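Minutes, project check-in
Item: structure for the 350-residue chain
Input as provided by the requester:
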Amino acid sequence: MHSTTAKRRWSRLIPVVAATAALALVGCSSSENPEEGGTDSPTAGLLPDAEGTTQYPFTVDTWAGDFVIEERPERVAVIGFNTGLDALQALDVTPVYALTEDPVWEWRDTDYFSQIEFVDGATRSDPVNFENIANTNPDVIISLNYGLEQTDVDRLTDIAPYVDLSTVPGDKADWREGQRIVGEVLDLQTAAEAVIDEADRRISDVAAAHPEYEGKTVTIATDYAGSGIDYYSVAGGTAESFMTDLGFTPNPIATEFTDDPAVADEALEKLDGDILIVSYFDDATQQARESSGLFQRLPPVVDGRYHAVNDAQPNSGSQATWVLRRGASALSLPWAAETISDIWLADVVK
């Protein structure tokens, strides 16, 4: 399980301007209180027709325990990172509860978001609002790869069965597993497989359009300013897997950061590869790093094979940084493939 401190570090990956935009959307997409939302909106139309492939009672195996779903859920609450709502949107399932941050993502269909019965003003950095969730009368609560404490899960299961991954949440989780779990729980398994296949096809199309990626190595890192640099594309992680899908070959250096992604200043030469991508949260952090003599001597920097991704700069594709860690989904990854190809890699692949 993950600490609150760790969650806050992940949350820094959302641009401040995006969070502001999310708050502006709350008034037009939520009821004034969850009880009104839970009673005024009809259940009909929240889910596509059942496929008849899931047999209920259905037991979902999560890292926090096994939870039994007695019959097909109709009212779905979703909390945590974008991946849960992405999995629902991909299946054309409209939840009755979601958090205010979710419409900020560039791949999100805001028209879909506006149909959600109750959008809580809370964010993922706030404590779980158990009362508001309960007031929407959910049949199931979905929270994919979020990293709640066991005590929070226990309180949620007093409201409705809890759906998550089978393994402890982390940066190496398989987005396909999450999509399949949601499909099974909602009796939409065939639709879930179709969603996965379509996402894989779109990523493959980007790879096919860029044969120049084949065989090259890439290092992706994030500069947390005072907290140092993290090696993002660790061996076995989401970023490495995704870049491999685009045609790149795994970087042997990545195996050195499997247990601890922190890159010490004295080990800065490990930020090597045919391509180097470094993500920054603001201009000051980027300027400080790029003015460092150690950084300036890195081969990718010297040779012009380095690209900076800066949250503070418009059209930087910075949201793809989050996708490559904990935001991977059938909706976000195809968007990230095009964004990374068109923006991050456009001028650095030699």
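Outcome recorded: Residues 89 and 112 are 8 Å apart (CA to CA).
No further action items on this chain.
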